[in-house]
From TrEMBL:
The keyword Transferase applies. Coiled coil: none annotated. It comes from Streptomyces phyllanthi. SUPFAM superfamilies: Acyl-CoA N-acyltransferases (Nat). Gene3D superfamilies: 3.40.630.30. This is Acetyltransferase.
């Protein structure tokens, strides 16, 4: 992976709505340029805690998969942060993590106004994660190969970008 420029934009800290509480996870010194959080519903003590990680695509292997913008973000529902939480504790129903994503994406766009895409890339055989992303408002856009694994790229875009036509016939000449 390319070195991280010193003037790279800082990662946003989203302010979630929808009854979600987001708490930062302490990262070890020298950890990659990402932020990890735990998320849980404030009003539902029985709801599972979900771990997520936010990266700049610029600092993530996904930067080789599509023409990214400098402020694009990648999110992962991440059981590998070192906490005793994993996605197996989340019910098979995708509603809790999907609800988190529906609150998270607008908060990321609000915290990082120059962001034009939030990307997620579950393994190609992880149908459950793909269902969660679709229920959370992400669109499936492509398949890609990363070192050691194949993924499916999902994207969420702010309404001003998502509504732009992409057909060649709709482009100004």
């Amino acid at each position: 992976m390319a070195s991280v420029p010193d003037d790279a934009p800082e990662l946003p800290v989203p302010a979630l709505g929808g009854g979600w509480a987001l708490r930062p996870v302490a990262e070890p010194p020298g950890s990659p340029r990402s932020r990890a959080f735990t998320a849980a519903r404030d009003r539902d003590g029985d709801a599972p805690t979900i771990v997520l990680r936010i990266h700049r695509v610029l600092h993530h292997p996904l930067h080789a998969c599509y023409p990214f913008g400098a402020h694009d973000l990648a999110v992962e529902l991440d059981p590998a942060v070192g906490l005793p939480v994993d996605l197996d504790s989340v019910p098979a129903d995708p509603a809790p993590p999907a609800a988190l994503l529906r609150a998270l994406v607008p908060a990321l766009f609000a915290a990082s106004p120059d962001c034009r895409r939030v990307i997620a890339a579950p393994d190609e055989d992880d149908v459950r994660a793909q269902d969660v992303l679709e229920a959370g408002g992400f669109r499936r856009i492509a398949e890609a190969d990363l070192p050691g694994r194949s993924v499916v790229l999902f994207a969420a875009e702010p309404p001003g970008i998502a509504g732009l036509p992409t057909a060649l016939d709709d482009m100004p000449h």
